[in-house]
Amino acid sequence: MNIIHGMWLPKDTQDFVQSKEQASLYEAVVKDVVKQLDEAEGIQRQGLMLSTLLKLKQICNHPMQFLQDGSAFTPERSHKLERIGEMLEEAMAEGDSVLVFTQFTEIGGQLNRYLSREKHYKTYYLHGGTQRSKREQMVADFQNPDNGPAVFILSLKAGGVGITLTQANHVFHFDRWWNPAVENQATDRAFRIGQQKNVFVHKFVTLGILEERIDQMISDKQKMAESIVGNDESWLTKLDNQAFKELIALNKQTIMEG
After folding, report:
1. 211: nearest Cα among 235, 174, 246, 176
2. For the segment 54-93, what is each residue's pLDDT rounded down to a tens digit?
3. Candidate ranges 143-147, 187-191, 196-200; pick with highest mean pLDDT
4. What is the pTM of this model?
5. C-alpha distance from residue 95 to each of 83, 99, 147 (Å)
6. What is the pLDDT of residue 97?
7. Dihedral sign from CA coordinates of 250, 28, 56, 170
8. In the chain, what are the domain boundaries?
9. Where in this chain does the record put each Helicase C-terminal domain (predicted)?
10. Dihedral sign from CA coordinates of 230, 61, 80, 91
11. Which of 45, 70, 124, 128 has its CA 20 to 30 A from that of 105?
């Protein structure tokens, strides 16, 4: 009879603040949208809110993703990249393989290049454009214990369902998908029949900004029913203007204390 030998451990949320560059970019975007929001209506307002959420999430990941200028993808510019680099180093030193999920294909590609070229890890990268034959080969190679520890980077939509990756016992969510069910489904790639180890789940939340507040909103079941939280960020456009401004505001005190 097949059973799952591994067991869930408490989920680990990594809290940190933005770099000074990230905070500056974030503040500029917020100031711009605050000026426009009160004059926008209907579809225009919804589009403005969604585009703002996208920009802020890009900044939270790395300035390069937001700027789209081909600048350096370095940990000095993003405390999130710095922290995941430290944690991956610890996992690889223990001989553990890991999964890294992101909703952004451009970040997945950058992580793949950075971890393979700068850190010299064995990496795989699966996204929506990956051919089926290559996808199957990557999964087989990753699942082969003789190949040693590796980092498997996956886009959340392409790699969040339908595959088994039990060679990994660490799961990192580099950026957050604001529906817990979607994240849990992705995490289940590692926690399936055949898993022999305990599974560690790591999530990243930037303090003093959008990420921290939405994480709190989703976690607080007393204030928000799970049915309200949709599959993407569109449910946030139902907030009134003042609530949205408070959601995206930059807490400068948090940045200074960090």
Report:
1. 176
2. 999 999 999 999 999 999 999 999 999 999 999 999 999 9
3. 143-147
4. 0.89
5. 19, 14, 11
6. 96
7. negative
8. 17-71+208-257, 74-205
9. 80-240
10. positive
11. 45
**Helix/strand/coil for 90:** helix
In the chain, at which residue ranges do the beta strands (DSSP E only) sit? Answer: 12-16, 97-102, 123-126, 151-155, 168-173, 200-206
Q: Which of 124, 29, 106 is nearest to 61 (CA)?
A: 106
Mean pLDDT of 6-31: 83
CATH superfamily name and code, 74-205: P-loop containing nucleotide triphosphate hydrolases (3.40.50.300)
pLDDT at 257 over 50: yes
Q: What is the average pLDDT across 173-191? A: 84
pLDDT tens, 88-116? 999 999 999 999 999 999 999 999 999 99
8 A C-beta contact, residue 141 and residue 124? yes
User: Which amino acid, 235?
Assistant: W
CB atoms within 10 A of CB 28: 13
Residue 3's identity, in one-letter code, is I
Give yes or no for a contact between 233 and 41, defined as CB atoms under 8 angstroms apart: no
Domains 17-71+208-257 and 74-205 share a fold: no
